[in-house]
Amino acid sequence: MSTGRSAAASNGDDILLRSDDTNHGITTLTLNRPKQYNTLTTALLDELLLQLQDIRGDASVRVVIINSSNPKCFSSGHDLKELLMSTTQEKQELFKKCSSVMMYLTQRLPQIVIAQVHGVCTAAGTQLVASCDLAICSHDSKFGVNGIDVGLFCTTPSVALSRNVHRKHAMHMLLTGDFLSSEKALDYSLVNQVVSKEELEDSTRAYAERIASKSPYAIQLGKQAFYKQLELHSLGDAYAFAGDVMCTNMDSHDAQEGIQAFLEKRKPEWKGT
After folding, report:
1. Nearest CA among 136, 131, 119, 135 for reference residue 52
2. Are 116 and 136 a contacting pair, CB within 8 Å?
3. Are the beta carbons of 8 and 50 closer than 8 angstroms?
4. Chain centroid to CA 75: how far?
5. 156-181 tens-digit pLDDT
6. Does residue 9 contact residue 15 with C-beta atoms inside 8 Å?
7. What distance lies between CA 190 and its chain's CA centroid?
8. Cα 63 to Cα 133: distance, rounded to the nearest angstrom
9. What is the pTM of this model?
10. Of 268, 246, 247, 271, nearest in space to 258 by CA
11. Which residues have CB under 8 Å from 101's CB, separation 6+?
């Protein structure tokens, strides 16, 4: 059912793993620096962007899952040792690269991305979760933007965080370094579902398969439109834009097929057009 394909850094370390389930159109990217708590180094960000760019052009992939090989940690954010050893220019390049990856998830990638989270998630790791379209976590998960504890305000993670949770909740996390429990993360809309550790993988797969079964054309068009309308200045502009997108969607093969299938009480056959 699945064809495993791993993505490795140029030094041969498998810091990012890729697995393609061609039967369901689901690709899983696994952060694979378990001993380093999946810190988002320059090398890992490079690999992540490379795989996302490859997936973007692959019409057979409908949903992407991002998870972790560390049983106790999704990602602890940036590598502080790497930051300490970097020049100012290198740090600027790292943060620019990280921001590019985060924006790629919502602004460039047409497929839906689900974060499958367990354990600790901090700083840029929380930023990664907030940058995914959807997120499911286990009960033992906790989320923080804890840079303030070492004298570093998590400014770049705050961009994604503040676009997911209420600004006062975000500011509290940024100023105190306090962790959010999984239940609080659900209350604050940082994640969509909380399940047991044992159910996490199956629940995420079921979620992904459900989305992958929908019209890929409607999903891709809808994702792009959803994020674009959020950036428009007025409610009127947003509705005008959304109305045009609805008309485009309605004229598509998949919408015509879906409506006809509904009327005929049969399963639609999507073409992605």
Report:
1. 131
2. yes
3. no
4. 13
5. 999 999 999 999 999 999 999 999 99
6. yes
7. 11
8. 10
9. 0.94
10. 268
11. 45, 48, 49, 52
